[in-house]
Amino acid sequence: MSRYFIILLLLTFERVSAQEAVSLLCEQRTNPEGIDVARPRLSWQLSGDQTAWQVIVASSEEKLAKDAGDLWNSGKVMNDKSVLVGYEGVPLKSRMVCYWKVKIWTSKGVSEWSKPAYWSMGLLNAGDWKGKWIGYDQGFPWDSVSKFSRLSARYFRKSFAVGGPVRRATLYIAGPGHYEVAINGKAIGDQVLAQAPTDYTKSVSYNTYDVTKECSSGQNVLDVVLGNGRFFTMRPKYKPKKIKEFGFPKLLLQLEITDEKGGRKVIVSDTSWRMTADGPIRSNNEYDGEEYDATKELGGWMKPQLVEAPGGRLVAQMNPPIKVMKTIKPVAIKEGAPGVWILDMGQNMAGWVQMKVRGPRGEKVTLRYAETLKKDGSLYTANLRDAKVTDVYTLKGGGEEVWHPVFVFHGFRYVEISGYPGRPGPGDFEGQVVYDDMADVGIFQCSDTVLNALFRNAWWGINSNYKGMPVDCPQRNERMPWLGDRATGSLGESYLFNNGLLYAKWLEDIEESQKPDGQLPDVAPAYWNYYSDNMTWPGVYILIADMLYNQYGDDRPIREHYASMKKWLRYMSSKYEKDGIITKDKYGDWCVPPESPELIHSKDSTRNTDGQLIATAYYYHLLGLMRHFSELLHVSADAAEFAGEIEKVRAAFNKKFFMEDHYSNNTVTANLLPLYFGMVSDAKTKVVFKHITDKIENDGGHISTGVIGTQWLMRGLTMYGRADLAYRIASNTDYPSWGYMVKHGATTIWELWNGDSADPAMNSQNHIMLLGDLLTWMFQDLAGIAPAAPGFKKIRMKPVFPAGLDFADCTYNTPYGQVSSSWIKKDGKIGWDVTVPENVRAEIFLPDGGVREVGSGTYHFEAKSKL
Ligand code: BGC
User: Fold this and answer.
1) pLDDT at 3 over 50
2) Ligand 1: which residue has its CA nearest to atom 3?
């Protein structure tokens, strides 16, 4: 790279009068209904650099229009905050609808008031709930409550009259596991698989809908259907110690109607409702599939029972609902055995297939789902373990029928269809991709087709595994929210999906799973009772709070979870710390290649890394984050305590694991962790790093790390000047490597480096834990987009330009707006285009070592390049 780096052009936006603020968000959502945050935080985007702002919040649209902020008028506030600005008005009460707008002063002048936005408050007090929990706490004669449970959906119905035109009608509903709700036959909302999964003994989320338009004067009918979800677990009576059970699905509902004359009517769930389970959904089970009999009319109505509440407190669901986010068309359909068709979606995905079918009443179509095919073209289901993943649809006859399941999802690329009347064509099926309603926020493209394929496969893998919580896989009999898989994954994912609210919710799940002594599990919500004590999996609690702060500027998770995080760390140190070393680890460097179960715990292996080294290095790193958090919260006594512990651990770690010029058994992971976490003395840094690079080079640029090492690998190599080697690893297509997966037909990311030949007992084709820090590296290092201040209020733009990579082109939507970085090598020069969002500053790291600070705008830089 030339030492001469010239700034060619500097374009800033024209100074016109300030435009109004746009993209108004409350608690990071657009016009949210039924929130339960006492001091909601408001955000907006603008054009220009903000110098002051004013927010007005009113109890009606009319008042807001008159600039009368009866709830809050902030007055003109002189600062540049435009993200997560805390509400400071009168205390908010249950059911309030709050209308708000914002005016901004910027370098370009003063804006008009923004267009109005609103939020509504949920039911904040237990006493607000007048509804009763209803259900039926046993199976029906056609159900089977066994290991492979078959439980039919429960249908509830209530008729009610409304005296006159409706001013506002609000529906509050909790229906664990899943519910569907309709008024007068019209489905409410476009969410699916509602509501968010939790440990229902700790909390039960409820959803709020504005149903003013759906309620009409006269007779109305309210219909609710309940499915099992995670409430009635997929494998009851199986391993009682391992699998948590919650009971049979149940409903709590409250519909509050105010008419034009101010009259109020409340419909609540109680024994005046009718109920039946003898309806079309004969069975639903997330592992095994759904059976739907369209010939069945709802019959056998009875009164529901009053049932015990699930136990958890009712909380408003603040994370986005799950929706059908995308639809795709099959790429092929082929007949295998006579009458058995194999549909190829061309893509491993999570969701379901919607089917169109015509045929005689009573015909049954069976759909079985799988990720891959056997050599003979039939479904390969061995890696699904005992999940049956089979939907059955019974036709009612008499015309075209369109169907998809509603209470289950599947992870699949192929569908085997049997019993289809006539000859199915690809147009009869549509893949509906189901995940949490979060926007795409980042695009990365470069000159390397392997990296581009990995980015694409990661996008599919990540969305497949967002289901109201991050799960490990969507297909086999597992689908569990394993903590360790997301340690740095969550950060990389945040460059692709706006995942802040999902992860904030997950931290609540983790906190709820904490035992009184501080212990945390490896899976949260703790649907599986795995409390095995290790630093790496539960450590995610602290790592994700840090991610949310850096990526979204959200400090609430740190504030709210600080005490529980500290309690966990203290639990671990008091139980397992001996002279500065953490003596307990569970998973090692999980999934080190070549994967073989014996390697995981073997001490003398040259590939695996000592569990105590891993645990102690993570402990050190987590202590550093906790010290940072304690400083942020001004808990200076804790900060001093953490600082003391950090020194002690570093000394003990080096004493025990440092061997002249490398760590422990000299694996990449053993050397990388202390190096990346800053535990190595300056004098030894070079030599330790050389062991890492020598090993990778001798290995032909292959991966030799598992889930743990790979979390820091790409950034570690780049940080110490070997972006070229990181790039070599990323673009490699021989085993073991990410590219090997691509070369062997993967359309997502595999659970194992040898996913094409591994034992089916543990061989998901759609896991994302092995991504490690690959995505973070693409965005932060190749494109050079990293937060220099929380929430990207300031951006560090420091790309690397590895030999062999000709261009990189990237955009990312920060909370302030879009940042972009696009560079290309051409004719011995590098051209670099940068856009810095409004109200943000950026540090631009020029390849000659110079640093410039710039404000929002579009810039072009050029430099001579030998690369
Ligand atoms: C899961 C992983 C998990 C691991 C830990 C596997 O079965 O699929 O995602 O982290 O177990 O034991």
Assistant:
1) no
2) 482
Q: What share of the chain is helix, strand, coil (3-state, %, to 5)?
A: 25, 30, 45
Full DSSP string of 361-388: TT-EEEEEEESEE-TTSSEE-GGGTT--
Q: What is the pTM of this model?
A: 0.96
Task: From residue 464, give the alpha-carbon distance in Å to each of 233, 347, 362, 542, 550.
Answer: 21, 11, 33, 24, 25
Query: For residue 99, how far is its CA from the centre of ligand 1 (angstroms)?
Result: 45
pLDDT score of 17: 66
Q: Find, among 72, 68, 18, the residue nearest to 45 by Cα.
A: 18
Is the distance from CB of 98 to CB of 55 less than 8 angstroms?
no
Each residue of 807-816: pLDDT tens digit? 999 999 999 9
CA nearest ligand 1 atom 12, residue: 587
Q: For 121-278, list the strands marked E by DSSP.
A: 134-135, 154-162, 166-174, 178-183, 186-187, 191-192, 203-210, 218-227, 250-259, 264-268, 274-276
Q: How confident is the model at residue 7 (pLDDT cuts 50, 70, 90)?
A: very low
Tokens of 631: 């400083």
In 3D, which of 183, 179, 156, 300 has the Cα closest to residue 232? 179
Looking only at the bridges linking them, the beta strands covering 289-293 and 390-394 are parallel
- To the query of whether residue 751 is one of the catalytic residues in this protein, the response is yes
Active site residue 112: no
Instruction: Give 289's DSSP letter.
Output: E
The C-alpha atoms of residue 721 and residue 700 are separated, in whole angstroms, by 19
Pair type for strands 41-45 and 218-227: unpaired
Residues with C-beta less than 6 Å from any ligand 1 atom: 472-473, 478, 482, 484-485, 587, 769
Helix (H), strand (E) at residue 510: helix 500-512
Q: Atom of ligand 1 at shortest distance to CA of 751? A: 8
Give the number of other CB atoms < 10 A from CB of residue 670.
26
Residue 614 three-state SS: helix
Order the strands of the 794-797 sheet from edge to edge.
786-787, 794-797, 841-845, 851-854
pLDDT at 607: 75
- What is the token pair recorded at 749? 């990311």
Question: What was the pLDDT predicted at 11?
Answer: 40
Percentage of the residues of the chain whose pLDDT score is greater than 70: 96
pLDDT at 90: 98
Whether the pLDDT of residue 8 is over 50: the answer is: no
The Å distance, Cα 134 to ligand 1 centre, comes to 36
Let me know: does 162 contact 260? Beta carbons within 8 Å: no
pLDDT digits (tens, 9 = 90+) for 269-308: 999 999 999 999 999 999 999 999 999 989 899 999 999 9
pLDDT beyond 80 at 58: yes
CA of 482 to the centre of ligand 1 (A): 6
Residue among 478, 493, 511, 645 flagged as catalytic:
478
Question: Which of 242, 383, 485 for mutating ligand 1's site (highest number of atoms within 8 Å of CB)?
Answer: 485
Helix (H, G, I), strand (E, B) or coil at 506: helix
Q: What is the mean pLDDT of residues 489-502?
A: 98
For residues 655 and 287, give the distance between their C-alpha atoms in angstroms, rounded to a whole number: 49
Would the pLDDT of 6 be above 90?
A: no
CA of 798 to the centre of ligand 1 (A): 35
